[in-house]
Amino acid sequence: MRGEESSDSESSRMEESSVRRSLETLCQELNMDEQTATEAMDNFTAIWNTYTLEGDVVHWLACSLYSACRKGSTPTVGKGLMEGNCVSLTRILRSSKLR
After folding, report:
1. Alpha carbons 88 and 83: distance in angstroms, whole number
2. Dist CA 36 CA 33 (whole Å)
3. Would you tell me how many other CB atoms lie within 10 Å of the CB of residue 63?
4. Fewer beta carbons under 10 A from the terminal one: N or C of the chain?
5. Does domain 7-95 have CATH number 1.10.472.10?
6. How far is CA 17 from the centre of its chain?
7. Domain map of the chain by residue range?
């Protein structure tokens, strides 16, 4: 995930797999749609490959999920659109155990 040497490719694949599992678990708990989850993973991967992220990876995944949730829109009864996909920040924070 980090663009390391080929000798570290197996450990980076294991790390990426662990991150994906963490995101899948978080998304299942939040009943997140697949498109938002995919966008969150893409955003997280781009940041992960560019910067050094300190702390719990799940907390960074939660930030990425929140960002992806805000980019979507949900149709309303009055033929309008509501910004976001109706997953609240509070639920994301609770699910990721970010205090």
Report:
1. 12
2. 6
3. 17
4. C
5. yes
6. 14
7. 7-95
Residues found in the chain: 99
**Tens-of-pLDDT digits for all 99 residues of the chain?**
555 444 467 767 778 888 999 999 999 999 998 999 999 999 999 999 999 999 999 999 999 999 999 887 777 888 788 887 888 899 999 999 876
Burial of 31 (0-12, 13-18, 19+ CB in 10 A): exposed
Place of tokens 């702390």: 55
- The pair of three-digit structure tokens given for residue 27, joined into one six-digit string: 């998304």
pTM of the model: 0.78
- Amino acid at position 85, single letter: N
